[in-house]
Predict the structure of REP element-mobilizing transposase RayT.
Amino acid sequence: MSRKYKFRDQDKLYFVSFAVVHWIDVFIRDEYRQVLLDSLTFCQEKKGLEVYAYCLMTSHVHLIIGTHGAPMADILRDFKSFTSSQLRKAVTEHPQESRKEWMLWMMERAGGRNGNNNGFQFWQQHNHPLVLNSNFLLQQKLEYVHTNPVEAGFVDQPENYLYSSARDYAGGKGLLNVLLIE
């Protein structure tokens, strides 16, 4: 990973995005999305992860996060490693997963091409953390996270997308506990 894309200041908020290898649309099933939500909750409760905004799309995740616990790079490394193994298991065991063989083949193919893995890769390697060091940048990324499902054509209003913190910012209650940015 380039030096340019490291978590340098643990006291800052960061925008991160990460995607499934080959942009495979894995997160179309509730069971798979729940693995991510449960893992984020665990990181909040046990590792000191602070989630300020999130959006789970079909092939990728957007987060605005901070920490006053473990180093951010360690939290994301553990999160991606754990969810990778849990999601592989969930795909393998899902009785109605018609794309099972293809998805596992694509992930094994990606893992075989990457010396950092043991023949299997779920997530793309990079996170490209962007430090949110100005109010303008923070608001820009918050809007980007929340309008992603609108731009994709899933909903007409950000707060109508269930797998996003947009409903928290609209005065409702989302699926994760988020710290609202004032």
Remarks:
- The chain has a mean pLDDT of 90.
- Residues 3-134 form a domain with the Alpha-Beta Plaits fold (CATH 3.30.70.1290).
